[in-house]
TrEMBL record, chains A, B:
SUPFAM superfamilies associated with the record: Isocitrate/Isopropylmalate dehydrogenase-like
GO-annotated molecular function: phosphate:acyl-[acyl carrier protein] acyltransferase activity
Gene Ontology CC terms: cytoplasm
Organism of origin: Alkalicella caledoniensis
Family of this protein: Belongs to the PlsX family.
Record keywords, A-Z: Acyltransferase, Cytoplasm, Lipid biosynthesis, Lipid metabolism, Phospholipid biosynthesis, Phospholipid metabolism, Transferase
Recorded superkingdom: Bacteria
Protein name: Phosphate acyltransferase
Catalytic activity, as annotated: a fatty acyl-[ACP] + phosphate = an acyl phosphate + holo-[ACP]
Gene name tied to this protein: plsX
EC number: 2.3.1.274
Cellular localisation: Cytoplasm
């Protein structure tokens, strides 16, 4: 299983990204990694780590240019052919790599998927589909969370189909429950786009459409797949991060106000760590970009080594292993 | 201060609503309440409570019809003239009441505000503006959270103006920071509506526009006012409720797994209660419907007596006391 890793993407590039790749190599010997970025930097950093048991299982692909978050996506992909991001995606296009992982510019990654790899037949707009944690150890695929800012009702139907196939493959469940994110459960609720999408979705026979789902029910695991506009999905994802972090801070303040509370908090440390882990997005790896001809995984911009490792092992490897793309070609 | 209370709105109508009204009367002797709903039921319930010190401070307005959540808003307001909701709003229109509180059908309340009271000059669509808790005991007015499902960029600018005046009045701060909810902080990010709204907002001289704010920053208290489309705001509000409730459940599971943890959890009970209170929407009362000619407060559909009491004392009374409507007439 060969993974192309964009070493220059994300807030913690390049060292934490390289570390994530090395950790993945160490943990899973089925993995082969293309480290894509400035050759010398990568070579030096890997040498400094003095890892054993990884020789012959990686390769450095030199890329001297970088696409930053300030770059305009489409233009950057067209002009910066020597960037680590474009070169990493091109490795998938040429068949050298099975999948690509980046924590870099989301828009540019989208554009590279769109222009370098091309879209799957039947899909007009690709979608980013992360896995949200839900109560009781369950999970929910939410798409789109930011690939497409102004989705039409037809886009939402395509997301529903892709999400259903993807959830079936990664959760290993049959006929996953697909819900339309909306402001009320009743038919006829919502904005113009969701109202029209409901009408289309209820006539789709190849997905298990359960109707509208309110945002309140998403963390309860009300559906296996939640379909929404990229703007709304992005707001929900980022709000989850902000709220979880804010809740932890508030809780910490409360728990350390006074000696006895501090003592109590100490006995509960393992419980908190277990809880934190359940809420931690880096446990779930990255979000696949569904709808393009290749396994593309977008990791969070603030990814640390652990998040990159999980993006490689869970998503980058998982998508290929479960044959998600072949299932897309058959099912859509 | 006279408040019209729709006794038949919400999941816990009528008894918890009546109780909330009674609690408000007990707590604040500046308050006078019109209990609007089926006369006999209200009379009997109040008599059964045997409260002292409230006689002469309330009145029952008989209303035999009810607008339910299944009713179509505009039609219901037109046809059900004898409903508790329409009659309660009409008390404000006629000048008998200073403000109205309901936990009933949001759309119908909107429609009643729109048709019975009318819009404030310069406002094309009213907005629901609840207060979100933020870190460090701060608060943020978020609007709209569901009055208008397909907001235009012009609507968003009107929300910004109303939110600014409202925050200035209720938080007693000068030049509140107004942020546009978006998927990135940079100018040019977002969907078509937010991109256009940014262009309009940056030229507004009478508000303190701080630019785009990501959802992640909302719980951190990044702005005093957050402006967004009603669909997005509704998703954010409901997601907050669901996530908070889900986090409490997960935490509870973790904290009670084993004897020592249970013991530890016991010592921390006051801390958890303090935390829960900070996250509890019922502490903040209801959400005002801004933009109509009258002080209208929408309480959560699942409001209990405490939420109703707070909606009356904090929002229903507060809006009138701070002269929010007069300030709207001057400022917009």
């Amino acid at each position: 299983m060969k993974i192309a890793l964009d070493v220059m993407g994300g807030d913690n590039a390049p060292y934490s990204i390289i570390d994530g790749g090395l950790d993945a190599l160490k943990e899973d010997n089925e993995i082969y990694i293309f480290f894509v970025g400035p050759k010398e930097t990568i070579e030096e950093h890997i040498a400094s780590k003095n890892f054993s048991g990884i020789s012959g299982r990686y390769e450095i692909i030199d890329a001297q240019d970088v696409i930053t978050n300030d770059d305009k996506p489409v233009e950057a992909v067209r002009v910066k052919k020597e960037s680590s991001l474009v070169k990493a995606v091109t490795l998938v296009k040429s068949g050298l790599a099975d999948s690509v992982v980046t924590a870099g510019n989301t828009g540019a990654f989208m554009a590279a998927g769109f222009f370098v790899l091309g879209r799957i037949k039947g899909i007009s707009r690709p979608a980013l589909a992360p896995i949200f944690p839900a109560q009781g150890g369950r999970h929910t695929v939410v798409l789109d969370i930011g690939a497409n800012m102004d989705a039409t009702s037809e886009n939402l139907v395509q997301y529903a189909k892709m999400g259903s196939i993807y959830a079936e493959a990664v959760f290993r469940i049959e006929k996953p429950k697909v819900g339309l994110l909306n402001i009320g459960v009743e038919e006829g609720k919502g904005n113009e786009v969701t109202k029209a999408a409901y009408e289309l979705l209820k006539n789709e026979t190849d997905i298990n459409f359960i109707g509208n789902v309110e945002a309140r029910e998403v963390p309860m695991g009300a559906a296996d797949v939640i379909v929404c506009d990229g703007f709304v999905g992005n707001v929900m994802l980022k709000f989850m991060e902000g709220l979880a972090s804010s809740i932890f801070s508030t809780l910490k303040e409360e728990l350390t106000a006074g000696f006895f509370r501090k003592l109590g908090a100490l006995t509960l440390k393992p419980a908190f760590n277990g809880f934190k882990k359940k809420m931690d997005y880096s446990e779930h790896g990255g979000a696949p970009l569904l709808g393009v001809k290749g396994a593309c995984v977008k990791s969070h911009g603030s990814s640390d080594a652990k998040a990159i490792k999980n993006a490689i092992l869970k998503q980058g490897k998982g998508m290929v292993k479960e044959g998600v793309l072949k299932k897309f070609n058959k099912g859509i």
